[in-house]
């Protein structure tokens, strides 16, 4: 978003910038996580408008996880005007240096919030949905969002020794998975009972118990969910195909345009 001299907030005038920001929200809809958005942006550049002395200058870089989160959480993209979202505290350290620390305030404590203040990429209600989804995704606070992948216990298995959730690690060599207690990894000396266990050792037993406990309706629900995942993968595949098609078309067009240039003008064409 750009702030005009008249105090108005407008969408970025650059189309590539607008597309990139709109894609952050579209990809969040598709993947349901900031990590999914970042992964989809691999190999694609992301815009950044400078602030300070170079205010407004357009630069390009990588879309980081932090950047994706800050866009998804920033009400300005949802057409809202907000002020006072941060708390800034400064501390003088024993050696005399001053450090400042910025923390986010909960929405109820923002100084000013005016929804539908300007044109945004998403609606205010969508903004609130994203906020809820992001909170549900925060595994560090104990949330266990559903995960995709072959190991059946990922996201729901807890360490029998310390009781903390276990992570799923895929082995580079053969792609099989292990459930790993994060406690064991960070401090195996203090938690000798924490272990890593191969998914192949746990999963068959869990599957057997699960099938014994499931009703036919629950099975059809699970099949529907699996179809949805399949479709989602096909859609992202299709998007990649379209991108290749577009790139081919553009290369073709550039080649034709180049071919039409008179020989004496070729030098000019090359420098354009
Ligand atoms: Zn443990």
What features would you describe in this structure?
- The mean pLDDT is 83.
- The chain has helices at residues 15-31, 34-40, 65-73, 124-137, 182-186, 199-213, 216-260, 266-271, and strands spanning 2-3, 9-10, 46-49, 58-61, 81-83, 86-92, 98-104, 112-114, 166-170, 177-181, 196-198.
- 12% of the residues are buried.
- The protein is an alpha+beta fold and 272 residues long.
- It has a three-stranded antiparallel β-sheet with strand order 9-10-11. Strands 1-2 form a two-stranded antiparallel sheet.
- The chain has three domains: 2-80 and 115-141, Hect, E3 ligase catalytic domain fold; 146-213, no CATH class; 217-271.
- The structure holds zinc ion.
- Zinc ion (ZN) is lined by residues 159, 161-162, 164, 181, 183-184, 191, 194.
- It comes from Actinacidiphila oryziradicis.
- Pfam families: Recombinase, Zn_ribbon_recom.
- This is Recombinase.
The number of helices is 8
Question: Looking across the biggest beta sheet, what order are the strands in?
Answer: 9-10-11
Low-confidence stretches: none
Q: Would you identify the CATH architecture of the largest domain?
A: Alpha-Beta Complex
| Overall number of structural domains | 3
How far do the termini sit from each other?
30 Å
* Distinct small molecules: zinc ion
């Amino acid at each position: 978003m750009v702030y005009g001299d008249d105090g108005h907030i407008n969408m970025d005038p650059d189309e590539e910038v607008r597309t990139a920001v709109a894609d952050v929200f579209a990809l969040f809809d598709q993947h349901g996580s900031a990590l999914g958005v970042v992964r989809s942006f691999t190999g694609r550049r992301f815009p950044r408008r400078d602030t300070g002395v170079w205010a407004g200058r357009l630069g390009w870089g990588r879309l980081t996880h932090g950047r994706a989160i800050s866009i998804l959480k920033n009400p300005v993209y949802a057409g809202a005007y907000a002020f006072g979202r941060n708390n800034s505290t400064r501390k003088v350290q024993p050696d005399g240096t001053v450090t400042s620390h910025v923390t986010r305030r909960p929405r109820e404590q923002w100084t000013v919030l005016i929804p539908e203040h300007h044109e945004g990429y998403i609606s205010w209600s969508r903004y609130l949905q994203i906020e809820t989804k992001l909170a549900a995704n925060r595994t560090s606070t104990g949330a266990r969002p559903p995960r995709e992948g072959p190991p059946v216990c990922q996201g729901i298995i807890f360490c029998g020794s310390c009781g903390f959730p276990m992570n799923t690690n895929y082995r580079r060599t053969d792609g099989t998975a292990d459930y790993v207690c994060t406690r064991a990894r960070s401090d195996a000396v203090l938690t000798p009972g924490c272990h890593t266990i191969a998914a192949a050792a746990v999963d068959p037993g869990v599957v057997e118990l699960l099938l014994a406990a499931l009703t036919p309706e629950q099975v059809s629900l699970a099949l529907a969910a699996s179809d949805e995942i399949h479709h989602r993968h096909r859609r992202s595949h299709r998007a990649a195909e379209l991108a290749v098609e577009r790139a081919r078309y553009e290369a073709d067009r550039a080649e034709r345009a180049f071919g039409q240039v008179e020989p004496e003008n070729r030098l000019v064409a090359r420098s354009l």
